[in-house]
Amino acid sequence: MIRTSNRWLWQAVFVVIMALLMTGLYQASQSINYNWQWHRVLPFIVDTTPKEFRAQGDGTVQINADNSITINLDYSNVPQQIPAYDARLVQQGDLVFEGDVVASSNQWTIGPVTLGLWVTLKISVLSLFFAIILGLMAGLMRISHNPVTKNLAFLYVEIIRGTPLLVQIFIVYFFLGTIFELERFTAGVVALSIFTGAYIAEIIRAGIQSIPPGQMEAARSLGMSYPKAMMYVILPQAFKRTLPPMAGQLITLIKDSSLVSVISITDLTKAGREVISGSFATFEVWFVVAGLYLLLTTSLSWAVQRIEKRLASSD
């Protein structure tokens, strides 16, 4: 056991190391003479720019009793109506010209980076769901005594693990997508599910084989069929043992989802590239994108740790 005084000492050492790292990063950023503009990134996350109401033509302003604005246009018999707003920039009888701002309304809209985060979250959750199902089926087939199912699962695992994910995404989108008329999002989910399912299959296989054979023999001696013994005796024990590597694989899936941007899915990575092309805030945007990915993976890691503690307390 580490004594309390030593624990505080090591905590202080950690703080000093982090301070030195932050100082080093700051000095490095100063050496490249980069003008940091974090304020330019915020509108791409949540845009709070007021909505402007512009005159549709030349005319005269009329302020009504209910405080709404009417613009009597010179070249149209139909006046322009602005019923609700938050700030008025004109007065009764003012002359306005086409394009002039006459009022504004406070609002907020979701920026492209936030929309990209939502797409990444959605494609990751769907891929996780199907990858677990596919991995469970392939894992059970890997330990099967039937040569056909065992060989099929082995072939699936080896092919998928032996080829890059980027190549698989292209094959699914351009080949399978053309045959089955898959949309970009669906093709991305299929590719990620197939890729992650192969790794989950090996994790499940290793977890099942780590359970002593006596567990299955005891369950069968009690009259359980093989599927029931696997479902109620073997898999629950294997699940506890495979949870840490499973969590690592699921976290990897969230990060690998950034590759679907190559088939024009506007996920978090592609949204970041589009924002950079319009704002030229290269470093700021990529730091924000990295932070959002870190938020997703940290949340998943925290949830898995909570599950581990609950399962450990149930033993």
UniProtKB/TrEMBL annotation:
Keywords: Amino-acid transport, Cell membrane, Membrane, Transmembrane, Transmembrane helix, Transport. GO terms for cellular component: ATP-binding cassette (ABC) transporter complex. Its main location: membrane. GO terms for biological process: amino acid transport. The keyword Acyltransferase does not apply. InterPro entries: AA_ABC_transptr_permease_3TM, ArtM/GltK/GlnP/TcyL/YhdX-like, MetI-like, MetI-like_sf. Residues 117-304 form the ABC transmembrane type-1 domain. Signal peptide: none annotated. It is a multi-pass membrane protein. GO terms for molecular function: transmembrane transporter activity. It comes from the Bacteria. The keyword Endoplasmic reticulum does not apply. The chain crosses the membrane at residues 7-28, 115-140, 152-176, 182-201, 285-304. It is found in: Cell inner membrane; Cell membrane. Part of the binding-protein-dependent transport system for glutamine; probably responsible for the translocation of the substrate across the membrane. PANTHER family: GLUTAMINE TRANSPORT SYSTEM PERMEASE PROTEIN GLNP, MEMBRANE COMPONENT OF AMINO ACID ABC TRANSPORTER. Belongs to the binding-protein-dependent transport system permease family. HisMQ subfamily. This is Putative glutamine transport system permease protein GlnP. It comes from Photobacterium halotolerans.
